[in-house]
Design brief:
209 residues, mainly alpha
């Protein structure tokens, strides 16, 4: 069953596939936990209260992000963290890693390490489509919401929120902007991105890129 998700020129041994999946998952989530914990602990010292503690909050959100689940311990999801670039950046990175799929990640690692001269057609399609959807979606959200939901933010924060909205809408479901307050064109864009989803063999949903 695991082998069915893999292209022939990437990996074909089930034990190695399983090992690589577990290793990548642990490394990605551990890195995410470390960065989120550091930031949440800093916020906790400055007076922010975390009902479950900064450590558990970091673990929960790192796992939720990598698995493209979008669940949060906060009652308003991540709407109170629109100016927390580190928090949004880490969660977005984990969402993208999970949404690319283990096939693509392994293929990219093989290429970057010099063990392969190129990546598979599958990986090329996933990488280019992912980049195009993230950047295209972010640009559209920025234009559509700059005078509405993003109106009270400086340009850098508005761009960060637009990128995050583009990433999480397609493959996860975290909420940094109140979805009920988005304009109708933005809601239509959200539906299209949700329908598309992430990569085959990844933790994301949708019809796949």
């Amino acid at each position: 069953l695991i082998r069915d998700f893999y292209v022939d020129d990437v990996e074909h041994e089930s034990r190695k596939i399983t090992r690589n999946i577990l290793l990548f998952t642990l490394l990605a989530e551990t890195a995410g936990v470390a960065l989120l914990w550091a930031r949440f602990a800093s916020l906790e010292r400055s007076g922010r209260v975390f009902a479950e503690g900064a450590a558990f909050t970091a673990v929960f959100h790192a796992v939720s992000a990598f698995c493209n689940a979008g669940f949060s311990l906060f009652s308003t999801n991540l709407e109170a963290y629109g100016t927390e670039v580190l928090v949004l950046g880490v969660i977005a990175a984990l969402v993208v890693c999970g949404g690319l799929g283990f096939v693509v990640v392994q293929d990219l690692v093989t290429r970057l390490s010099g063990r392969s001269r190129s990546i598979s057609l599958h990986s090329r399609i996933v990488v280019w489509m992912t980049a195009a959807l993230i950047l295209g979606g972010a640009a559209a959200y920025y234009v559509l919401e700059r005078r509405q939901e993003l109106a009270g933010m400086s340009t850098p924060y508005a761009l960060v929120n637009a990128v995050f909205q583009s990433i999480t809408t397609r493959t996860a479901g975290f909420d940094v902007l109140p979805q009920s307050e988005l304009s109708n064109p933005s809601l239509l864009l959200t539906l299209l991105l949700m329908f598309t989803g992430g990569a085959p063999g990844s933790t994301a949903g949708g019809v796949k890129v």
